[in-house]
């Protein structure tokens, strides 16, 4: 799986929208747009690099009184094979992967914890990303593609009928069901 992939293919989207004769080339554009909208909404992406990549973190670590550790936010990582911190293997680096229950919950590690303030910048090499795209992301992407596909037939971004009292304006934001599907997958801010 590449970094920042499309979370659904045009064929998957076509099967979901169930529109006869749908143009898969157009759906492919919407698949990419929906995937990037999900990335923006969640402040993360759900792909994975193929091999370890070194990344430099210049933002200083912050002290957490609850854990007693200096915390450094890093990009998402689930595969810690070959991970190094400051050129030293993770196991020997003195860094702790956080949150503690990430692997049990099927979520990525988002921070490194240090007992002493690390010198800045910190260079971390890892296989960045998610081992697989979460089901909620795939579902959200299908819903958003479906919404945009049906909007093409909606006059000026209005769905429903004013005479029946069912008129609804389609806003420039993610579908509320998409936001619900993405619940719990957002980071508070971008890393880096």
What this model shows, in words?
The chain has 192 residues and is of the alpha+beta class. The protein is built from six helices and nine strands; from the N terminus they run H-H-E-E-E-E-H-E-H-E-E-H-E-E-H. The protein has helices at residues 10-17, 24-42, 90-93, 102-105, 135-151, 176-181; strands at 53-57, 62-64, 69-85, 88-89, 96-98, 109-114, 122-128, 158-159, 168-169. The strands form two sheets. Strands 1, 2, 3, 4, 5, 6 and 7 form a seven-stranded antiparallel beta sheet that branches. A hairpin with a 4-residue loop joins strand 2 and strand 3. Helix 1 crosses helix 2 (24-42), helix 1 packs across helix 5 (135-151) and helix 2 crosses helix 5. The longest helix has 19 residues, at 24-42. The radius of gyration is 20 Å and the shape is elongated. The mean pLDDT is 88.
Topology:
Blueprint: H1 10-17, H2 24-42, E1 53-57, E2 62-64, E3 69-85, E4 88-89, H3 90-93, E5 96-98, H4 102-105, E6 109-114, E7 122-128, H5 135-151, E8 158-159, E9 168-169, H6 176-181
Antiparallel strand pairs: 1-7, 2-3, 3-4, 3-6, 3-7, 5-6, 8-9
User: In percent, how helical is the residue content?
Assistant: 25-40%
The ordered H/E elements are HHEEEEHEHEEHEEH
The fraction of residues in strands falls at: 15-25%
Largest sheet: 7 strands, antiparallel
**Poorly predicted parts:** none
- Helix-and-strand structural type: alpha+beta
Could you tell me the mean pLDDT?
Answer: 88
Helix count from the secondary structure assignment: 6
Amino-to-carboxy terminus distance: 22 Å
The Rg value, from CA coordinates, equals: 20 Å
Number of extended strands? 9
Based on Cα principal axes, name the global outline. elongated
